[in-house]
Amino acid sequence: MPIEISLKTVDREITRKIKEISGEPLTKCMQCGTCSGLCPMEESGDISPRGLIHLVNLGQKDLVIKAEFSWLCASCYRCELRCPRGLDIPKIVEAIRLLKLRLNEDYVKPFEIEEERIYELPQIAMVSSFRKHTA
Amino acid sequence: MKLGYYPGCTLKTKAKNLEDSAIESMKALGIELIELDRWNCCGAVYSLADDDLVHILAPVRDLIRARDQGFDKVVVLCSMCYNTLARANLLMREDEVKRDALNNFMEEENDYKGEVEVVHYLEVLRDEIGWDKLAEMVKNPLTDWKIAPYYGCTLTRPATISIDEGLSHTIFDDFIKAIGAESVSWDEAETCCGSYQIIANPEAASKTVSMIVTSAKAKAADILALSCPLCEYNVGRRQADLLSEDSDPLPTFYFTQLLAMALGLDDKVSRMELNTPQARDWLKAKELVSEAV
How many domains is chain A built from? Predict the structure, then answer.
């Protein structure tokens, strides 16, 4: 995917904010792709975790915000276990999610969940979904 | 021996089969699980943001309840609750600044510093009873059962709270061997089931469930043993509609139901009526439950 890196597209503020919310030293990432190879959601996403971290480090705010992958991460921690740079990648992805949720926009609309599902879903499914996907 | 016990929300409703079989089995093994007098939802997922402390309050309050009731250990069954409580506890032990902030906020409580130890039920079996002793207490060994142990994500990751040391885990396998069954070694034992994505992105969850079911079957597993009610929902209850082309379903059971069967406890404690049709059919084929279930 070709991207334009210029004064028009680079926003250093997003890199700083994600670093602050996640507490992770993002620039340690050496783009090896171990996380992407292990991620069970990579196949379903529009960008890999490696690619997403690259965009954050390049200050590509619009592309970072647009990436659907941050919603797909289930914080399963497979990537964190094997990251050779010791990065807690789920924390980085959580920070991106929070940047969006803190604009007070829900990704999951609780009132739109089918009634039949509400009766059968275990509570932990709904609590975790609302925690990760609603403002 | 008596140990403190934190059930969590799902074990009181959808996963009564996990709770009932666990409590009765532990009783048969000589350990009484005492439910905390007061507890609240742990939040199901641990907050990963550095600037978000408010979501750590719920699990910490549960740990304070356990300490105030005089327990130095609290046993957890639900994998998600285990993860959330164990991580909150680790934070209270290791992060002085955040610990102080949380303790100051909860001014009505006595300061908490991580005094309670959070343990998963499997750890109690391993550390308090031991696999050899458990094997001796088994009355109906599940001989010839090929069981795939499904750890999922939250029992062993992150490594700081894992119920088993190292990168290659054996605790679930050891349990299966102790109850007389064959533990299947398979590739997706620690792959995420899709978790809460089942609500927002069921198509993504169907891919992970498909990987898990296909891998277990490829190793000729008869059934899948698990510890998490959300894994049970995704891999068990939703298996049929997520993998509609699949004609040969894979039965799923909570590991404590298998334990109860191996210990020769009454069928009723396992609440098999709450399991999936494929699980009940499998038991019927083995003539292990009455037709009434």
Answer: 2
Q: β-strands B2-6, B32-35: how paired?
A: parallel
ipTM given for this complex: 0.96
Residue A131 near chain B (CB below 8 Å): yes
User: B15-66: per-residue pLDDT in tens?
Assistant: 999 999 999 999 999 999 999 999 999 999 999 999 999 999 999 999 999 9
Q: Are residues B115 and B197 in the same domain?
A: no
Pairs of residues, one from chain A and one from chain B, whose beta carbons lie less than 8 Å apart: 134
Do A62 and A116 lie in one domain? The reply is: no
Q: Looking at the structure, tell me whether residues B112 and B143 fall in a common domain.
A: no
Q: Do B197 and A95 touch (CB under 8 A)?
A: no
Are B153 and A76 an interchain contact pair (Cβ–Cβ within 8 Å)?
yes
> Is the same domain home to B248 and B191?
yes
Q: CA dihedral defined by B15, B18, B20, B23, rounded to 10 degrees?
A: -140
Assign B103 to helix, strand or coil: helix
Contact A123 B192 (CB under 8 A): no
Peptide bond into B158 cis (omega under 30): yes
- Secondary structure (3-state) at A122: coil
Angle, CA of A98, B161 and A131, to the nearest 5°: 25
Min Cα–Cα distance to chain A from B102, Å: 18
Q: Name chain B contacts of A122, Cβ cutoff 8 Å.
A: 10, 13-15, 229-230, 232-233
Which of B188, B195, B239 to probe by mutation at the A interface, max A CB count within 10 Å?
A: B195
pTM listed for this prediction: 0.96
Containing structural domain, residue A131: 107-135
